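User: Could you check the structure of this?
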Amino acid sequence: MAIEQIYLYVLLIVGAATILYVFFGDVIEGIDEGIPFFNPSVIMAFGTLVSATGYVLEVSTSWNSWFILIVSVVVGVILDILLYFFILLPMSSAEVSMAYTDESLAGQVGKVITPIPIDGYGEIVIETVNGLINKRAIGFDNEEIDYGKEVLVIDVKEGTFLVREYEAFDFMK
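Assistant: Sure, the predicted structure tokens are below.
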């Protein structure tokens, strides 16, 4: 069997394993917790890079096969380290979800977009990293709050935000 075929077969097998890992990777998620370079993504990327580099160099150059193998492994290690430190590691420490709950918005400052009457409902808008969120609101002490006023979300009950007019604290006084 020619060495080009071996590189090509390894490339196809590792490529298929990578596709399977994308679909079923959650099953073996805990394997990479203890040893960072034992991450299946890193190992499969290394196999893919080595076999792809080896195949291309075997087909396009007349170098010795052992030299091509050494060059392929060096290229694979370098690119794999770059992949791990610049893509996989930052992604693993990134925020998992951008979802929010109503309770998580307590303590946030919003703005009244529909005036809140005494003993009645109005509407506020809260600006988050996800965008603008509109919510039904009432005054915490059943007070009236005019349009455009900044409010502080005190509590959330049954989807209704209890708010109080926000007064920024001035540290310079």
